[in-house]
Model the fold of this input.
Amino acid sequence: MCIRDRPYRAAIGVLILLGLSACAMIPTESADLSIELGKRISVLETAHMALVDKYFDEKRNRVDEFVEKEWVPEFAAQFFANEQITNLWNQIVSSGNTADRLEFIVTLGPKLQTKINAKRLELIKPLDDTERMIEQQLRDNYDQARAINNSVTSFLVSSVKVAENQNRYLE
Done:
């Protein structure tokens, strides 16, 4: 390295430092925008969770409709296909005794309802499990986005304060 090159290198170094410090200026609005983004992330999360809830509520309604309109009639047909039950029911109906009919329904009704409820739960459980899994994944992703935004916001706020202090001291 030649002695004559040292002043040029020093000047180039100073110019590079000035250029880099000029590039490091962060507008004060950037911190405000980052804070607003953090608020919007929370609003988006709330809306996203509400959408997931509505979606799975609709799926549960479809399961209820299926159970009521398709499964119960088929279950009832199979239930009354049992010759003993059909004979007993026909005997009770032909006797005209209202108390016997009521006893038959009161005795079998809860047992039938238990089977209907078990079928509904069998169909609803995978929906509930999937909904919980999706909600947890969404929460994790929104928490991560919020954490990243908080880091960026902290950096921006700190940088703005440093720049303000530098300007104040330089004046």
Summary: The chain has a mean pLDDT of 86.
